[in-house]
Design a protein that fits this description.
The chain is mainly β and 149 residues long. The chain has helices at 14-22, 101-108; strands spanning 37-42, 47-53, 69-77, 113-114, 120-125, 128-134, 140-146. It has a seven-stranded antiparallel β-sheet with strand order 1-2-3-7-6-5-4, with no helix packed on it. The two termini are 24 Å apart.
C-alpha cells in the first residue's frame, strides 16, 4: 500500500479510514490548542502521519469541511529513533534507506532545498514534497512525502 497516496484526505473521510485501518491506528487525532498540526503514530510500523487543520493549508487541494484535519505528510523511519521501528515497506519514488546523497541525486535530480550541512534535502516531485534526512555517514534514514507548502 502506498501510504502517500492518501495525502489530501481528511480524518473521518472513508478513504483515509482505509489507511488508518491498514496501519491499525485507532487513535483520534487531537489538535492541541493554538497548533495547526496533529500526529498519528504507528511506531511499530515506522510510520508517522501529520494532519493539519484545513484552514492552515496555503494551497488546499479541494474544499474541506470546517475544522477538517487533512493528511499532509507521511514520514517513514529507516532507523530506530525514539519508539519507532524501521519501516519495512517500499519507499516512494524508488528511494531506499541507506542510499547515499550521490545516489539520491542520480535518482531524483538536484534537490530544490538543502540545509547548510546537507543532512536534510527536499525535492518537489509531481504534486509532492519529498524530504530525506541523512545520517552522519550521508545515508538516508528518514523519508517523508507531503503536500506542497
Amino acid at each position: 500500500m502506498e501510504y502517500f497516496e492518501y495525502l489530501g484526505y481528511y480524518y473521518g473521510e472513508e478513504k483515509l479510514g482505509i489507511l488508518l485501518k491498514e496501519l491499525a491506528i485507532d487513535e483520534v487525532p487531537v489538535l492541541p490548542r493554538g497548533d495547526t498540526d496533529a500526529y498519528l503514530l504507528k511506531e511499530a510500523a515506522g510510520v508517522e502521519l501529520t494532519l493539519s487543520d484545513s484552514e492552515s493549508l496555503k494551497f488546499p487541494e479541494r474544499d474541506y469541511p470546517d475544522g477538517a484535519l487533512v493528511l499532509v505528510n507521511v514520514r517513514y523511519y529507516g532507523k530506530e529513533i525514539g519508539g519507532f521501528s524501521i519501516f519495512q515497506g517500499l519507499l516512494p519514488y524508488g528511494i531506499g534507506f541507506g542510499q547515499k546523497k550521490s545516489e539520491l541525486f542520480s535518482l531524483l535530480g538536484e534537490p530544490e532545498w538543502r540545509n547548510p550541512d546537507e543532512s536534510r534535502l527536499r525535492w518537489i516531485l509531481g504534486n509532492h514534497r519529498v524530504h530525506v534526512t541523512l545520517n552522519d555517514d550521508g545515508e538516508a534514514i528518514i523519508v517523508s512525502v507531503g503536500l506542497p507548502f
